[in-house]
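To assess whether ligand presence alters the predicted conformation, the chain was also submitted together with flavin-adenine dinucleotide. Input:
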Amino acid sequence: MVKKHALILGAGFAGLELAAQLSESLRDEVRVTLLDQSDSFSFGFSKLDVMLGRRAAEDLRLYYGDIALEGVEFRQERVTSIDPDQRRVTTDAASYDADVLAIALGADYDFAATPGFQEGGYEYYSIAGAERLRDALPDFDSGTILIGILGHPFKCPPAPFEGALLLHDHFLERGIREAVEIRVIGPMAAPVPVTKELSQAFLDALGERGIEYVPKQLVTSIEDGQARLAGGESVPYDHFIGIPAHRVPEVVESSGLAVDGWVPVNRANLATRFPGVYAMGDVAGLPMAKAGVFAEAAARVAAEDIAAGLRGGEPPPPYEGAGNCYIEFGDGLVGKVEANFLGGPAPTAELVGPSRELAAEKEEFGSIRRARWFGSAP
Ligand SMILES: Cc1cc2nc3c(=O)[nH]c(=O)nc-3n(C[C@H](O)[C@H](O)[C@H](O)COP(=O)(O)OP(=O)(O)OC[C@H]3O[C@@H](n4cnc5c(N)ncnc54)[C@H](O)[C@@H]3O)c2cc1C
């Protein structure tokens, strides 16, 4: 039997999980090519370790060369064009035709959307940014640190607040917490606004540590210690840390796949409007948070839908946009948000913990995926 060709663009949470699923359930019927421009994957939350100097970036990289999934071939190439009608993809090295095409290219950062940010601000949403901030932190010894959320949606809604909580700890340890003011400013009416209760839990955690959240304010540019807001006013800062505005990668934009910024999909099975083309993870436009746990859950549903399409079986139960996200609260404590965005009439999200047991559970979350995707010892 001639195997069908599944081409997966992007080897992040979604692409890796889709490759693992197809390798497990369809290896006799499907050969998989997995493309990524990078040589390695690292978990989003690793960036917090890098920012705080707890781990070196190099120790956190998982190399794609170690992928040992039967029937999956990884190639390090940059995707330069996607023709969704023909399911034809061109990279900097080759071109590919696919029977099934999965777009899992994630979200890119749009630094230029906020004038002054790249020159005058810091960030921890990229490894390079986290390293730069780590190197600058020793000079942050007094004044106001303004953490600005520079667009919506953005990856991992709790991460700006997680950063603030961890910086609080960092300054406590240095004995200079009193000399530093930490404020988070963003366009949302409340932190993590998926439910009132969850936002309140974050407001309480921030309040207990003397961290202010300034709601409904979008920083549009920064210059000379002043963050300019959409309404025209300015907020002063001594050190600015931004959560960059997000966008689909350029190649997705130019393929015509994106509508209103993101790739529209059937929320039940992650299919795009192009036959045989799926999109999942951060690149997809769904009314829910962008996070790795949701990306991998989407990949599982897409894999089942691909199997049903090939074998003529029943379609899988609809994607629920459900998953558990771990959040560091500082002092070795980790909380867990259990969320379900699409499974019911309204999204649900509940904070469990924080506790030390959940810190161990978060470690396990990482090692299970390292073993599953990269064959590393758990
Ligand atoms: C600080 C921080 C903390 C986080 N904490 C958590 C957490 O605790 N839990 C959680 O679930 N999520 C967390 N996240 C979010 C999580 O990392 C992302 O939501 C997740 O990685 C999305 O998965 P994805 O597969 O859609 O995209 P990605 O993992 O971003 O993968 C996309 C891949 O596409 C590749 N790519 C892009 N363009 C091209 C191209 N043109 N050619 C070839 N390859 C290309 C990229 O190299 C990348 O490997 C965090 C994120 C950050 C920044």
